[in-house]
Amino acid sequence: MTRSPATGLPVVVTLDLEPDLRVIGRDGATSWSGVDPTIATIERWRADLPGAAVHWAWRCDPAIAEAHGDPGWALARWRGQIVEATTRGDAVGVHPHFWRWSDPLGTFVVDAADDAWKAECIERSVTTFTRVVGRPPQTCQIGDGYFDAAILGALVEHRIGIDLTLEPGAARRERHVRTELTTGTIPDRARVPRVPFHPKPRNPLRAGRRGASPLWEIPLTTSTEPLVVDGVVVDPPGTVALLGLAPSRFRHAVTTGLAASVAAGAPYLNVMGRSDAGADAGLTEHTVRNLEWLRTGMRGLAEPWGEVRFVTPDRLLDLLGLTRA
Question: Which of 115, 158, 175, 245 would bridge 150 by S-S if both were Cys, CB 3.0 to 4.6 A apart?
């Protein structure tokens, strides 16, 4: 059944707040220099957008404890901004990665093959957030697109109500970055629905009946077809609408992804950015241009539903009528 938004086209903008580098150190010198510029970029962008909300997802997993001595280091460092964001109606959640320190190798490894470790990373993220912020998180976005029954089980156990991890159309991958050390694989997401759904407990890449899981999965907006430039595939199907992409690439992911969600029966966008972009002038410029295009340049795309509305994940579900179904 097609679900038209009550008023406007709902758009979730998720910002992952994390260190500048993917592979961090253990000496306390890990840089988070992109966080403040990212927050400033968002606040300038929505200064004249009354009621615009965003979704902030913070790293507070065991790797952050290895780097700073406390997994809640960043939450404590930016606690004032987190309180302010919550007060103004933003959503604030967690962004667990599965990095694990290896003494023999002297570096971090993404250990996605160990179900107990994945559950621990999620548990530490949730308990740390609760301790520092003073309330449990309600949302999650898992790092690098990993998702399986063990991850879903841990999220449900810790009462996460909404996850925003899955990338419809993306192929199976051995690892997120070719040169990194990893275990496990990122699953084939070719058949992930392009509408919010309750995952099947044993096969969470598929939609189960309502009530199959208490968790809502809100898939990211991804491209449905390759972007080809001068005969070369620049972005394969399943490329996420990432704010740091060059504008032409971002718009391709948004336009094809929105068309797919409309065809699937739930018109919405779920785009994301990362705070490492705030540490790079070129990525910051892309982010600014893409945010502005979402606000003013895609009015034609949103015309069937009226205005574009920047909302929290739970509000998106409400506008689509899913929480009342």
Answer: 115
Residue 324 resides in a domain = no
What distances in angstroms separate CA 223 from CA 104, 198, 271, one per listed residue?
40, 22, 11
Q: Tens digit of pLDDT for each residue in 152-177?
A: 999 999 999 999 999 999 999 999 99
4 found inside a domain: no
CB 96 within 8 A of CB 141: no
Overall domain count for the chain: 1
- Joined together, the tokens standing for residue 44 give 């300038």
**Helix, coil or strand: residue 227:** strand
Query: What does the alpha-carbon distance between residue 287 and residue 275 come to, in Å, rounded to a whole number?
Result: 10
pLDDT above 50 (res 1): no
Question: Rg (Cα) of the chain, in Å, rounded?
Answer: 19
Q: Check which CATH number belongs to the domain holding 256 and give it.
A: 3.20.20.510
56-106 pLDDT, tens per residue? Answer: 999 999 999 999 999 999 999 999 999 999 999 999 999 999 999 999 999
Confidence of residue 39 (pLDDT cuts 50, 70, 90): very high
Q: Which domain holds residue 108?
A: 9-319
Q: How far apart are CA 225 and CA 240, in angstroms?
A: 12
CA distances (Å), 133 to each of 55, 83, 85, 137, 290, in order? 15, 8, 12, 9, 30
| 8 Å CB contact between 192 and 164 | no
Least confident of 208-217, 236-245, 254-263: 208-217
Which residue has 């993404």 as its token pair?
110
**Mean per-residue pLDDT for 21-31?**
90
Whether 90 and 54 have beta carbons less than 8 Å apart is answered as yes
Length reported for the chain: 325
* Alpha carbon 250 to its chain's center: 15
